[in-house]
Amino acid sequence: AQSVTQPDIHITVSEGASLELRCNYSYGATPYLFWYVQSPGQGLQLLLKYFSGDTLVQGIKGFEAEFKRSQSSFNLRKPSVHWSDAAEYFCAVGRASNFGNEKLTFGTGTRLTIIP
Amino acid sequence: EAQVTQNPRYLITVTGKKLTVTCSQNMNHEYMSWYRQDPGLGLRQIYYSMNVEVTDKGDVPEGYKVSRKEKRNFPLILESPSPNQTSLYFCASSLTQEGVGYEQYFGPGTRLTVT
Hints:
The complex is a heterodimer. Chain A is an all-beta fold. In chain A, 0% of the residues lie in helices and 54% in strands. In chain A, strand 10 and strand 11 form a beta hairpin. The interface between A and B is medium-sized, with 27 and 29 residues.
């Protein structure tokens, strides 16, 4: 069965510091990978996605992620975090549904706290 | 404005009282889906729909029903709610393209409490 693991439940970083959120997936074929962000009390917003091609993908708000097939990973990075980045981050993998199209399996999320 | 709307946003009800949470999208998306979010479990898919009159179970469908009679609407029905269905519910929609992954657009969420 397809699965996504986000090993860090909660991460605290200082404003201006770099950030890396880890995501590992289990999938039997080439996955479609996503990172979503959920601000407090809000729905989910797509940060970036990987379908094929360049394994380093750029997203919104200065985020990037790198797909590493050999490590089954899709870690999210940002060189310098801002207080507004405090949120919960979800990694998701697209997998085949009964209709031949993909459906998403989400990780359990990583809560990011920013300290001044 | 392109969006997914859900109503109500907050609902407190009692065990066994049937309820419906509505979901509507104005982007002409074929695909719609319902998720529930619980602490420590992330988002789990309840049901999804590939188009009008085409629905299928997700990972946690027990206790829920859905229907897709119009492309824009995808209501979630709890025939006899129980306390273990207390959760935060999200509706999402997306285009579907053969062989290409898709971005899901999420509604603002419905917080349901069943006492």
